[in-house]
Specification:
Elements (H helix, E strand, L loop, with lengths): L18 E10 L9 E6 L13 E2 L6 E7 L2 E8 L14 E9 L4 E9 L1 E9 L14 E6 L11 E2 L5 E7 L3 E7 L4 E7 L2 E2 L4 E3 L8 E6 L3 E6 L5 E6 L9 E4 L5 E7 L2 E7 H6 L6 E5 L4 E5 L8
Parallel strand pairs: 1-7, 8-16, 17-23
Antiparallel strand pairs: 1-4, 2-3, 2-5, 5-6, 6-7, 8-11, 9-10, 9-12, 12-15, 13-14, 13-16, 17-20, 18-19, 18-21, 21-22
Length: 306
């Protein structure tokens, strides 16, 4: 865990061939003269930005080409986006970008990447009929389409759903994205784009718009409840986000009883605030929630007492 020292550990390393990737911007949206273009190469298994090659790096504004040196063999996602502001310039126009999978071996690669303009996504939201359907209203819901691999300035902004269930998101990154829904006691149950079902809300806009987005929302949420240290703060977070986002909290009462409701189905980590802040990890539990399910847990402090 962070801050913990270990001794007596040997690392065995072996040399491996590296290669380089030459990328040329070709066709697609007009990138000429823009000073806000940047690239990022992310290992495919990582799934989020921030590692690999040190975050965003600028693309030469006039050359339209760049090299990525010292790339180990493996699968990567190459991202190029505008509206990434460096000290040398400002965002100069509407969002453009592209995402492409790269499979690197031990030989140099030449890659052509066509930038596309931001995609406008139109759609509808409906609330699945259930015993809790009266707990949410369409105009209380917010739709967000978030780039799957990285954060793009100007993309992924939330959009409120209208009373008739329609919405329009005007500037969405032209690549793999996730559909997210937020609102009181509601979660994304299923979604379709252009009539095709989306797995896990994953929406690929690399080829541009190809129809409307249909979202079904359920209010049959789950609950975590149980006992903890009296008056302690209890936190829960989706496992795919860790403790970096989507955190929900509740305070235990004087008898140590707490309740976290309105949760979407899925896997969560749940623990006391003191356990998470210390980074020790002891006492943090993992739970899996099904629709409408209530899971009971007993959380203990570092000293072992509930």
């Amino acid at each position: 865990m962070p801050g913990t020292e270990k001794s007596g550990i040997d690392f065995q390393m072996k040399p491996a061939h590296v290669t380089h990737i030459h990328v040329t911007l070709a066709g697609g949206a007009d990138w000429q003269g823009r000073k806000d273009l940047a690239w990022q190469l992310i290992p495919a298994q990582q799934g989020t930005a921030g590692g690999g090659f040190g975050g965003w790096r600028p693309v030469p504004a006039t050359e339209g080409a760049f090299d990525i040196p010292k790339v180990f063999p493996g699968s990567y996602r190459l991202l190029v986006s505008s509206n990434v502001v460096f000290s040398s310039g400002d965002a100069t126009g509407s969002l453009i970008g592209a995402a492409q999978q790269i499979d690197a071996g031990d030989k140099p690669l030449d890659v052509q990447l066509s930038l596309r303009g931001a995609v406008e996504v139109n759609g509808t939201v409906e609330i699945e009929a259930s015993s809790g359907a009266d707990r949410a209203k369409l105009n209380e819901l917010v739709v967000q389409i978030v780039p799957e691999y990285a954060f793009y300035q100007g993309s992924g902004q939330p959009e409120a759903v209208k009373e008739d269930g329609t919405f329009t998101i005007k500037s969405t990154f032209p690549g793999p994205c996730r559909v997210r829904i937020s609102g009181p006691s509601a979660f994304l149950k299923s979604a379709w784009y252009g009539g095709a079902p989306l797995t896990g809300g994953l929406l690929d806009l690399s080829s541009g718009a190809r129809g409307d987005l249909r979202i079904v929302v359920s209010t049959n949420t789950a609950t975590i409840q149980g006992t903890a240290t009296p008056m302690a703060q209890v936190l829960a977070a989706p496992m795919e986000l860790g403790w970096t986002g989507g955190i929900m909290s509740a305070q235990a009462d004087a008898n140590g009883q707490f309740k976290l409701d309105g949760l979407a189905p899925g896997k969560y980590r749940v623990g006391l605030q003191e356990q998470i802040d210390s980074g020790a990890g002891r006492g943090v539990q993992e739970v899996t929630l099904e629709e409408g399910q209530t899971v009971v847990v007993e959380l203990k402090s570092a000293g072992g007492a509930p």
